Amino acid sequence: MERAWIITWGVGIAALPLAALTVYLLYRRRQPDAAALRTSIADVAMVVGTLPWLYLTLRPVPNGPERVYLVPFEDITTLPEDILFVQVVGNLLIFAPLGFFLPVRWEAFASIWRVLGVGAAASCAIEITQLLVGSGRVTSIDDVLLNALGAALAACLSRPWWRREQEAARMP
What we know:
Elements: H1 3-14, H2 16-29, H3 34-58, E1 68-69, H4 81-94, H5 96-105, H6 112-132, E2 139-140, H7 141-170
Parallel strand pairs: 1-2
Helix pairs in contact: 1-3, 2-3, 3-5, 4-7, 5-6, 5-7, 6-7
């Protein structure tokens, strides 16, 4: 396993108690009710769940290929099977925490299409950043598509949670 992955997982696991403390402090600062707990968990989970992936995708790769693929599926279809699996799963997971908790946190994002749009916009920002800073990474439309799809699929998984909240808010 690559050293960056080991460090990222180690820091992520070590940060869990701090994340739990942050949820507790946010909850206490807000109106202590079910909504305050839900939003506190969502706020922290979006950040803690997304930051490690962002670090891994934005860190430079010395002597990396620095290619640009703007045609959908041109990049991903050329990868060997072992790398293909890691690329697909990794790209689906990058914005999964954001996609899962965004509609839970803000009702304005309680739409799979809106979450898909946020995932695509955030992914475009990453790809453009990788290209502009010369990080030695591949810039690919396939990454944007998979990142956005991962956010939308995660939103689908959390849909029962945020739909229930919407329906409860509409009840007289």
